[in-house]
Design goal:
The chain has 190 residues and is an alpha+beta fold. It folds into three domains: 4-62, Beta Barrel (OB fold (Dihydrolipoamide Acetyltransferase, E2P)); 65-141, DNA polymerase, domain 1; 147-189, Helicase, Ruva Protein, domain 3 (Orthogonal Bundle). It has eight helices and five strands; from the N terminus they run βββββαααααααα. The chain has a five-stranded mixed β-barrel. Strand 4 (42-51) and strand 5 (56-61) form a beta hairpin. Helix 7 packs across helix 8.
């Protein structure tokens, strides 16, 4: 099992990076949207090797907790490594843990864009499994978003901003109404 690789990024594609380690280039599936990989960067990726009959696929993450969440997602029925990576591309680990901790599939669906049935399966299947894990202690201290914040995020996404950037921008702002938050976020994001 390949559990970690350390090397130089030699190529970046949508959903994949190629990491040169000791003269061998490893193609690693990863979240290229949430992490800024650039050619020439030195990276450490915590990895999961998915063994199939016709392929050996390597998936990597910059933190151990992201890898843990990825592996948890694969425990959900009908979610394999590619689907788990897509879920993580759409929803940050914090958002996933927050929704699972609250047992709120609608919240996850609204903020991530993941399908409603998939959200229900993730929340229902992982709620009990996440409680005992080390990173789950943060669930109780996470604050949810207000209705104004979720409305502002929805508006920013409809304007063409990506979900993660919109959520991060709005979460840091203070405002009474969605309009206030949208105005502040637009100033910050442009």
């Amino acid at each position: 099992m390949i559990r970690m690789i350390v090397g130089e990024v030699v190529a970046v594609a949508d959903g994949y990076v190629t990491v040169l380690v000791g003269g061998v280039g490893y193609l690693v599936g990863t979240n290229t949207k949430g992490t800024m990989f650039r050619t020439g960067d030195q990276v450490t990726l915590h990895t999961h090797l998915a063994v199939r009959e016709t392929a050996l696929d390597l998936y990597g993450f910059t933190t151990v907790s992201e890898l843990d969440i990825f592996e948890l997602l694969m425990l959900v029925p009908k979610i394999g490594p590619k689907s788990a990576l897509q879920v993580m591309n759409q929803a940050s680990p914090t958002l996933l843990l927050e929704a699972i901790g609250k047992k709120d599939a609608a919240y996850l669906h609204k903020l991530s864009g993941i399908g409603k049935k998939t959200c229900e399966n993730i929340v229902q299947f992982l709620h009990d499994k996440v409680e005992g894990m080390a990173f789950a202690t943060d669930i109780g201290t996470m604050t949810g978003l207000t209705d104004a914040q979720t409305d502002a995020i929805d508006a920013l996404v409809s304007l063409g901003y990506d979900l993660t950037s919109a959520r991060n921008a709005v979460k840091e702002l203070s405002g009474e109404t969605a309009n206030d938050l949208i105005k502040q976020a637009l100033k910050q994001m442009t």
